[in-house]
Amino acid sequence: MADLDRRLVTATHESAPPSPATEAASALATTAPSLNVNFLLHHSRGALLRGMPSGAHRLLSAGCAGNWYFDWIEETYGRVPEHLGIEYYMPKPEGLPDNVTWITNTASDMSAVENASCDLVFSGQNLEHLWPEEVSGFLLEAARVLRPGGHLVVDSPNRLLTAPLNWSHPEHTIELTLDEVTALMRLAGFEITASYGVWLCRDPRTGEVLPFDPNQPTPGWSVTERLIIARDRPEESFIWWIEGVRRDRTPNAAATHAMMAELFAKHWPERVQRLVVPAGRRLQQSLQGEWVEAAAGEGGIVIYGPYMPLRAGRHRVTWQLQPADGTHSPMSAVCDVMVDGIAEPIARHEVQAGESHVSLEFNLTDTTFGLQFRCASTGGAGFSVLRKVELEEHIA
């Protein structure tokens, strides 16, 4: 943890030594350190791990990326006699601690774990990586493997903030809100016992969305204040944390699956539209939405994102464009589909004169992360592109 502490502050700047008469003013004038938001969140979650329901003899973790994860749990929650790790996407690491059993499976399939055999199930930043049937399946499996009185602890980014922040992670499907996960956990047989927030991103007095990056100016708020106030305001925080106890009642599996499917169908379209506009691009509002302009001779990316996952199948994405002069003049536009980590696009089209809608079909042989739907200018004739795409999944 000491190494993490050192990396939390990635750059510091010394101020001049304060004189006794002006110490307070000098302190205020000190240049603020540059903070790494990922380590800030990591340490905040670690603080909450220390307060999880104590005394677990058998802890199950859903989503454990490597040895560092088990070290983190032991340094914060404490050592448990038996720690089960469920992980599907990462290979089993070498040198696991002697109290760890690694299970290669999805979070919605814990068939290797006996009924009512666990004291505590922890899903840390995992729920948002799952597809809808996996979310509901995980909650029902957690209810099955926990003994009556055992605890489920889950934390995840909050869609009430990720959506207005236009924030994306290449492996996230949809993020849930605290109210939504509360309802789902109750359907799955849990009584909610506690909820907390991490990293305040909405001013509770004004409703204004606060920057995700702690280094951006936030008038009226310090980093410390945002961290402290977040704990009691999970709905206004970037991350919610929720704890529930397994009650001796039968989960309503059908209702849990149905609710999660409905939530996904409702909020997946918004996830698709988390497109990014590079700084300096001009935007124009219309009834259709925002048009992003590329002036004549102005090359480079015009829109990109949303850095999202898609399951295997054939898909189609469509952009809407218009020439700068409103006629059918040629446009120096290129549309493509990129995958994170792959240098070349998996689909690409150079826009021709008269094309107002550009569609690209692409095939994925497996679940793929980090998809981007980009539109770029080659620096010739100007055009505008609608900051919105149409995505059709699993086409024939």
TrEMBL record:
Residues 1-21 are annotated as: Disordered. One of its GO terms (biological process) is methylation. One of its GO terms (molecular function) is S-adenosylmethionine-dependent methyltransferase activity. InterPro entries: Methyltransf_11, SAM-dependent_MTases_sf. Keywords: Methyltransferase, Transferase. Residues 96-154 form the Methyltransferase type domain. This is SAM-dependent methyltransferase.
